[in-house]
Design brief:
Elements lengths: L4 E3 L3 E4 L2 H12 L4 H15 L9 E7 L5 E6 L9 H6 L19 H15 L5 H14 L1 E2 L2 H4 L7 H5 L3 H5 E2 L2 E2 L5 E2 L2 H13 L3 H4 L1 H13 L5 H6 L3 E3 L2 E4 L3 E5 L6 H13 L7 H22 L10 H4 L2 H9 L17 E8 L5 E9 L46 E4 L4 E6 L4 H14 L4 H6 L3 E4 L8 E4 L5 H9 L4 E3 L11 E6 L5 E5 L6 E4 L1
Parallel strand pairs: 17-18
Antiparallel strand pairs: 1-20, 2-12, 2-21, 3-4, 3-13, 4-9, 5-8, 6-7, 10-11, 11-14, 12-13, 14-15, 15-19, 16-17, 19-20
Helix pairs in contact: 1-2, 2-5, 5-9, 13-14, 13-16, 13-17, 14-17, 14-19
């Protein structure tokens, strides 16, 4: 594998080259890592609609040059009309996966952009919002080529998705999915971005855009009302952290599964795997994932409803106790709730050392499928994570935030290296993150760590049991050893590469270049100065 791209001043990584280019341009014009990330988030929300939209949620980890790490929670809450009683009255036994009733939570992403930019301005950031949104607006107006990643997903196989209000007109061509490279335009979305550039991001919630959003949502029958939009604010949170042998790792608190990502690394370290790769490495990561997700499923609820002590869960004593439950030779049986996801992770580190780990999503591919006609906004379906059982851990309740698979990790090594990294992949996010991190921590280049074949322990929708999905190219000797240890193995061919996430990483050392790379499975790359 080639060495990771190296830049002397600043760098970004993103799953689409247009987003990486937008971030680099902002850095070249004197912008900081936060401003670059907003430009990247805007562009990718246009060109990667199967994974991300301004109608979704997002989370940030920001590390200041002096070392403080901050977290932004940009998760929207369930609308006023989103109650168990209302959905039961409509005859639903579970929350619909697509359509207007799936578009039940306020999009939080732009609130996160706004809060991050406030922080940037306080630090001296000066680039105008119009400049940050310019690339996204032009691509929406003038057209962009459909990505290879999007073309690999067939929306026609999901009748409910195709039937969602506005979906077919926005994403199908003569009733068929667009081919890779076909030029698509999004004029209404371009108008929305231009309005936000003039009026400010707050307009999305409390201005003209918010009014249009509310009217369209009411027209299609979503439970979100204008007052929900007006009341929404992104919030600062205290990040979670975990001390490892040679590094401190950070992630976001509830309602995200940042806890699971940290638990996995803490458990893996206690299993004292001698080196990455091989049976011991894969087995330890799979078994750590089972333990971490069992805890996650109980603890990770709306921040304001959480009852678990997250510091206690991440304590050395608890991790030691959980690690003793892992058999180093045999697989433990474990059913996992089925999940899927359309998400983007992106990273940026600027010349001052400001580092950003960022993640944004519409949840499933294309989210709810609803494209609002006046604004061109594609709405997420994050509310699928709620339950219509009032005794569940995440019951549907107006004003409550849904559980989030999103989580943006960041690590600071004892030798001074700062690493922002992450991946898409729903339940796979902690697993893919851990596979990448453990390889980098052991000395692999970013490119090697990102390109290495991955595994994914999960139960896909419609499957009777959880299996270990094995990516094409995985070491056959390791696969055989996993099978002999009672892991249920399911091999995947190269066409299933998107199942194994789109990961990326940017790393800065006290001396030397900034290294950056993005997953060869994606349409992205790294860029910098």
């Amino acid at each position: 594998m080639p060495e990771s791209a190296a830049f002397s001043r600043a760098a970004v990584a993103a799953p689409h080259v247009f987003a990486a280019a937008a971030g680099r341009e902002v850095l070249a014009q004197g912008g900081d890592a936060i401003e670059a990330m907003v430009a990247m988030a805007a562009t990718i929300s246009v060109v990667y609609p199967h994974n991300v939209s301004i109608g979704g949620d997002g989370f940030w980890l920001i590390r200041e040059p002096a070392g403080r790490v901050r977290a932004i929670d940009a998760c929207g809450f369930a609308g006023q009309g989103a109650s168990i009683a209302a959905y039961r009255a409509l005859g639903f036994d579970e929350i619909p996966q697509r359509g207007a009733k799936a578009a039940l939570s306020v999009p939080g992403a732009l609130g996160g952009w706004a809060l991050a930019l406030e922080f940037s301005r306080a630090r001296g950031g000066r680039l105008p919002l119009a400049l940050l949104l310019d690339d996204a607006t032009r691509r929406a107006r003038d057209g962009y080529p459909v990505s290879a990643s999007e073309a690999r997903f067939d929306p026609a196989s999901d009748r409910d998705l195709v039937a969602a209000p506005g979906f077919a007109a926005a994403f199908l061509v003569d009733g068929r999915p667009a081919a890779a490279g076909a030029i698509r335009r999004a004029p209404r979305l371009a108008d929305t971005l231009e309005q936000l550039a003039r009026a400010g991001l707050d307009d999305f919630y409390r201005g003209d855009v918010g009014r249009e959003l509310a009217a369209d949502l009411a027209r299609i029958g979503s439970p979100i009302v204008r007052d929900d939009l007006e009341r929404y604010r992104a919030q600062w949170r205290e990040p979670l952290s975990l001390r490892l042998r040679n590094a401190t790792v950070y992630n976001t608190p509830a309602p995200t599964q940042g806890l699971a990502s940290l638990l996995m690394l803490g458990l893996y370290e206690r299993l004292k795997v001698p080196r990455p790769e091989g049976f011991a490495h894969a087995h330890a990561l799979i078994e750590a994932a089972k333990r971490a997700m069992a805890i996650r499923n109980q603890a990770c609820v709306d921040f304001d409803c959480a009852t678990h002590d997250f510091k206690a869960l991440l304590s050395a004593a608890n991790l030691d106790a959980e690690a003793t439950k892992i058999d180093r030779r045999r697989a433990a049986p474990w059913p996992l709730k089925p999940d899927r996801g359309g998400t983007v992770w992106m990273g940026a580190i600027d010349s001052d050392g400001l580092a950003v780990s960022f993640i944004q999503s519409v949840y499933w591919d294309y989210g709810s499928g609803c494209v609002l006609p006046a604004t061109g906004v594609l709405m997420q379906n994050r509310g699928v994570a709620f339950s219509l059982d009032p005794d569940a851990r995440n019951p549907l309740t107006p004003g409550r935030r849904p559980f989030h698979t999103l989580n943006p990790p960041l690590a600071v090594f004892d030798d001074g290296r700062v690493l922002v990294y992450g991946s898409k992949g729903a339940d796979g996010q902690p697993q893919f993150q851990a596979q990448v991190f453990t390889r980098i921590a052991a000395g692999a280049s970013l490119d090697d760590a990102l390109a290495a074949p991955r595994h994914f322990f999960t139960r896909a929708r419609g499957e009777p049991t959880a299996t270990v999905k094995i990516e094409a190219g995985y070491d056959d000797t390791v696969v055989a050893a996993l099978a002999a240890a009672d892991h249920r193995i399911e091999r995947k061919d190269a066409a299933a590469r998107d199942l194994f996430g789109h990961a990326g990483a940017v790393m800065r050392a006290p001396r030397g270049p900034i290294l950056a790379a993005h997953d060869p499975r994606s349409d992205g790359g790294a860029a910098g100065l």
